Amino acid sequence: MFHGSEERLRARQALLHEIIANGIVHGTQEQPIISRDGRKGTSWVMSFPGVGLREPWLSMASDLILSTLQNYQAQQIATMGIAASSILAGCVLRSSRRYNALIVRSERKPYGSAKQIDGLSDKTQPVVVIDDAIGTGYSALKCVDILEAHGFEVEGVVCLVRFSYDSGYGLLEEHGLKVRAVYDLYDDFTPVMQPEDVPVHPWRARNIAWRNNSAPEGLSPFALVRLYLQEFEDYGALSKLPKQLVTTFSSPGGCWVSLRHRNSGLPVARTGVWCFPGDPEMSFTTLLAEATWNLSCLLKQHKIDPTGCGIGISQIGQLEQCLQGDADNNCYGLVCRSTEREWQVGSALPRMPGITGSSHQLRHALFINGKFRAREPFIVYRHKVDKLVEAGALWPTGGCSTNTSDLSVCTDLERTANILLSRAIALIRGAEIEPDQTLFLSDRNTCFLTIYHRDTQCACGGRRCVSVAEFDALVHAVTQDQRLEGIPATQVVLQLSILSDCWSSADIPEFVAGKDALGLVSATSESILLPGVAVEQNLDSEEFAAVLFEKSAVDSDTNISWQRFNTRQWLRDTEGNVHRCHPSIWVATRQCDPYDLETVAQYWLAWLQGHISTRTLVESEQPVQQQTGNVASAAVYAEAIRRIGECTAALHEPAMAIPFDLLPRDPDLLTLAHAYGATNAGDKSVPDTRLFQQLISKLDTTAPRHQPIAWWRAIEAAQIDDERVVRWQNAPLSPYERIVRCCAKPNAQDLKWIRGLIGSDGSVVCSETNIEDCLVTARTAEALAGSIERTDQELAQRILLRLVQLSVLLDDRRAAIRASDLQTGLRAEHTIAALAAFARLHQHNSL
């Protein structure tokens, strides 16, 4: 082993150069390299035995692996095949008897001992798999699977060389394995073997060819872009930068250039460059030239003709490293940069069509635009952005930060809505009212007036209203609905919807169901659906568009145009109060008081108790449509019972009898964990109960990486705190699994990360892709509520107040949490998780 970090560094450098010299086989025409899937074309392949069967290189490699193994508890190491067998033997010899080694065969030996695993094994101890290189990762993963099938616990994988993170290394992490490597192909090998492939700033343009002449002075940015696009096509080079443009522009964080068809507004191409903190400062003109060079290369690569396109330019403000919770889709664009592959960058502009909020914006930046792997670690930057659009170009709204003019438009609309609703109720009551000469109505806006009585829609209609007289005509038309007969005008509730920023396209545009209105126009008809329809029927974008298409009754071969509208809505109640409202009147009239957490928690509890006592708990419930989803799983039932017990104790209410008859005969691990937790028998002084023995038996046969949520909940319920907990505390998990791990066993690292997810309004900004945002939010509250830190408990309370806003009051003093703010569907697990957080806060006397 090494005596200090300097000796390790010297050995690492020496072995690196030896591997490059003698551990790599280059393909030739006579002997090409053939990949695992049979394809040719790979220029070289690593062959470690050329190094690892000689000294001192084997000792160096073994010592480097041994120093990496210090991150693991395991004292058993294993490998499959011959590639790393010499390293395995070297580690045993040089570890002073610390490690025991196993050789795994890909297939069971058909003769002799017929073993698949050779060596003196101990199945009570964990194993780390050793490999010379991780390419696809399939070989290492197969070795892990074989070991687990034989009853071993595999703690992770260590290799000498990884072929970048976006390889089997990332795959193994996605399978829940802790992976470490001595070398990285891109970071260590490429700078020596192919230094020309390692740019200093990979997020900037490279190899720009410049002409001898300079571009004219005083051009607009659009004229300069068009000049450069033409010069690239004609000469493959750009004129030198002008000293100044028509005016001064600022873009310290980077610059992006987009092309859209002038007639349709459809996107054609978009690319740009970034300036991260620490990069050399560049002028706007330099960045614009680099972005246009990249765009020209993209157009050439994909053979795209830019003729007939309009130009949009995004001026990126200073990139500011931030926490995920600092994201704000209304104000900031996001840039995500991998900490494993520094050249890997993904971004998302603010307020883009189809993006529902900050979490969606983050996921769009990471996985749609950035192509990140599921568990790839990253840094987040936020930035302001201004958008320049060429005159005559058709461009959608969004893509830039909110500004003063946006706020003034909202203020004007607020005033307009108040006047229109007051006017509407006066007209409905038969009053004579003079036109308001000061009221301005835009010819780009469409108004809808909806009349409700006791939450039931009685009338609805809409039209473009350029004048007050046209709005009066709309009110008159709506009040002719026969459903209003016999209803006193003093008992109606009015909802005004103002639709603006119409975007038309031949195909269904990007939009957010439950937030945007959608229209469909044919030669003979025009239909519009308001977003409340999507909310109350729990429709996604595809379903919402299908409902509109059916409503329009047009033939599938009819020439149609789709329309998206930004929608703002106001409500006038029976008391005459006017306020911005939720798209769904059903939600708007049932929202809970956001400041009375304890009362709402009692309502959550009552809703859950009612379903448990009647055995009617379901995963989801659609009260508006009076429909229910699948029956809740045994694990959800068990957790519901557990949280009811915790909350009744916290609120000093009578305890509910535990209905153990709800448990299946052979419950899974998660069900057992919550069932045991429900008995309040977590005291280790009485661990001999039948349920406890079932729990421990199931826990001992469950691999943590296969069922991490169930495993950590079982650890929590059984109050286990042994070497297994330490071993798996830092294993790679999905964001949601990591939050649940912190619910079960809070630790400083996870808590610090979770704090960074919280926005100032109690929202949780998370990259989780497989779990609804609302459930992630509720589990985050549970994790923080279990912390002993007062500041964490205050954060948990802030999140719970956010969940109160997502709750609806039902009959008989009951309430439940909705799937999202854009749906009316109720979720059992979301409500259960919120109660878990509430009970934990009560235990800390934080409420």
Describe the protein in words:
This protein is α+β, with helices and mostly antiparallel strands. It is 37% helix and 20% strand. The radius of gyration is 32 Å and the shape is flat.
As for the number of domains, it is 3
Q: Would you tell me the overall average pLDDT? A: 92
Q: Main beta sheet, described?
A: 7 strands, antiparallel
Q: Quote the distance from N terminus to C terminus.
A: 54 Å
> For the CA atoms, what is the radius of gyration?
32 Å
Low-confidence stretches: 681-688
The share of residues in helices is 25-40%
Strand content: 15-25%
Strand tally is: 32
Q: What overall form do the CA principal axes indicate?
A: flat
Helix count equals: 26
Backbone structural class: alpha+beta
Keywords:
847 residues, Rossmann fold, Dna Ligase, domain 1, 26 helices, 37% helix
Task: Draw up the topology in text.
Layout: H1 5-22, E1 24-26, E2 33-34, E3 40-42, E4 44-46, H2 49-52, H3 57-69, E5 76-80, H4 85-94, E6 100-104, E7 117-118, E8 127-134, H5 138-149, E9 154-162, H6 168-174, E10 178-184, H7 185-193, E11 210-214, H8 221-235, E12 238-240, E13 254-261, E14 267-274, H9 284-301, E15 309-316, E16 320-322, E17 333-338, E18 345-348, H10 358-369, E19 378-383, E20 385-389, H11 404-428, E21 446-453, E22 456-464, H12 468-478, E23 493-505, E24 517-521, E25 526-529, H13 531-537, H14 541-552, E26 561-572, E27 578-580, H15 585-588, H16 597-613, E28 620-622, E29 627-628, H17 634-650, H18 669-678, H19 690-700, H20 708-718, H21 723-728, H22 735-744, H23 748-755, H24 773-785, H25 790-805, E30 807-810, E31 814-817, E32 826-827, H26 828-843
Parallel strand pairs: 5-6, 5-8, 8-9, 9-10, 11-12
Antiparallel strand pairs: 1-4, 2-3, 6-7, 13-14, 13-15, 15-20, 16-19, 17-18, 17-19, 21-22, 21-23, 23-26, 24-25, 24-26, 26-27, 28-29, 28-32, 30-31
Helix pairs in contact: 1-3, 3-4, 8-9, 11-12, 16-17, 16-26, 17-18, 17-26, 18-19, 18-20, 19-20, 20-22, 22-24, 24-25, 24-26, 25-26
